């Protein structure tokens, strides 16, 4: 009976994390950073993002709550910070014409590598809602198994992220350059709205005392 309960907790954690992470929403930013006609570059970038997502969520599962408490950071403050990053990313997408046009090769390579981690891996995929959900699932799973069950679910999420980003080339071929520009700007507007939605509820909550992730998870997603 305990084995079936543990399996149920694993499936629930996996489905919840994939749903909240929603890697499809990060595709426009990913497409704006990675050459769509270079399969090798796309594979390398997708692997980098997937590994970063796994590291972030696995870290949240194992030590996330302790780290926030160590620095006296509340979940509300974490949510506001993530929302600001999302908002700035959306504004950049709305204003950007060619994000790489005026940069030299070395600076471009460094910039793209950095942007694949922030904001693509975090907070677009491994955002406040995803991290809080991972931490909450860990607290729930502790009654039927070890945190490593949730870490395994995180590994499945990272694999899904990698697969979705690898399919970004197909998406680019289907919609073309002009369609991609329209999608990027539309998603920029959506990201601004999502960022505002993250910041506003968080700013109405206490930013001093750490929240219990069990209480925060229900309103952690936009």
Core attributes:
9 helices, mainly alpha, 222 residues
What does this structure look like?
This protein is mainly alpha-helical. It has one domain (2-219). It is built from nine helices and no strands. It has helices spanning 2-21, 27-33, 39-71, 75-95, 105-125, 128-141, 148-166, 168-203, 213-216. Residues 97-109 and 206-211 have low confidence and may be disordered.
Radius of gyration: 18 Å
Tell me the number of helical segments per DSSP (H or I, 4 or more residues long): 9
In terms of structural class, how would the helical and strand content be classed?
A: mainly alpha
Query: Which shape, going by the Cα principal axes?
Result: globular
What secondary-structure arrangement, pairings included, does this model have?
Layout: H1 2-21, H2 27-33, H3 39-71, H4 75-95, H5 105-125, H6 128-141, H7 148-166, H8 168-203, H9 213-216
Helix pairs in contact: 1-6, 1-7, 2-8, 3-5, 3-6, 3-7, 4-5, 4-8
Question: Outline of this structure?
Answer:
79% of the residues lie in helices and 0% in strands. By secondary structure, it is mainly α.
């Amino acid at each position: 009976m305990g084995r079936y309960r543990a399996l149920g907790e694993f499936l629930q954690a996996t489905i919840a994390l994939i749903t909240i992470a929603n890697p499809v929403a990060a595709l426009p930013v990913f497409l704006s950073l990675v050459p769509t006609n270079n399969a090798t570059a796309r594979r390398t970038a997708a692997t980098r993002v997937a590994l970063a997502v796994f590291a972030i969520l696995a870290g949240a599962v194992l030590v996330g709550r302790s780290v926030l408490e160590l620095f006296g950071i509340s979940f509300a403050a974490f949510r506001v910070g993530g929302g600001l990053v999302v908002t700035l990313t959306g504004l950049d997408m709305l204003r950007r014409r060619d994000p790489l046009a005026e940069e030299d090769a070395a600076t471009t390579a460094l910039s793209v590598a950095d942007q694949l981690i922030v904001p693509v891996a975090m907070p677009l995929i491994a955002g406040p809602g995803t991290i809080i959900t991972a931490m909450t699932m860990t607290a729930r799973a502790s009654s039927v198994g070890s945190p490593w069950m949730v870490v395994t679910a995180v590994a499945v999420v990272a694999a899904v992220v990698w697969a979705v980003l690898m399919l970004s080339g197909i998406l680019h071929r289907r919609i073309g350059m002009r369609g991609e520009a329209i999608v990027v700007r539309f998603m920029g507007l959506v990201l601004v709205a999502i960022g505002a939605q993250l910041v506003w509820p968080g700013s109405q909550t206490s930013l001093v005392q750490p929240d219990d992730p069990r209480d925060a998870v229900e309103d952690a997603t936009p």
